[in-house]
Amino acid sequence: MDKRSDPRHNFDANPTLDEPIAQQGKGPITDVQALHGNFWPEDERIEDFLAALHEWRGHKKTDPAA
To answer: Are 7 and 13 in contact (CB under 8 A)?
Structure first.
């Protein structure tokens, strides 16, 4: 199939929401647990991360006048 006639590559195409969902083989999420991440190490405190984040963003200045 010519790439120009392929609707997936047509800039002017106006697909319905269901068309790309069907092309990608996706559907609604039925299990909310699939969205739950388990990435935070248990031995690390969230407070330590937030303190580091504030420092990285420049919120923690060594000079109070800065």
So the answer is: yes
Residue 7: how many other CB atoms lie within 10 Å: 13
CA distance 29 to 58: 39
Name the pTM for this structure. 0.34
Q: Can you give the residue ranges of every domain in the chain?
A: 3-56
Query: Mapping DSSP to helix (H, G, I), strand (E, B) and coil, where does residue 11 land?
Result: coil
User: What pLDDT digit, counting tens, does each position of 34-66 carry?
Assistant: 888 777 788 889 898 888 889 889 886 666 665
Question: Would you state the pLDDT for residue 47?
Answer: 92
For residue 23, give the nearest of 7, 12, 35 by alpha carbon. Answer: 7
Phi, psi angles (nearest 5°) of residue 34: -65, -25
Distance CA(64)–CA(61), nearest Å, equals: 6
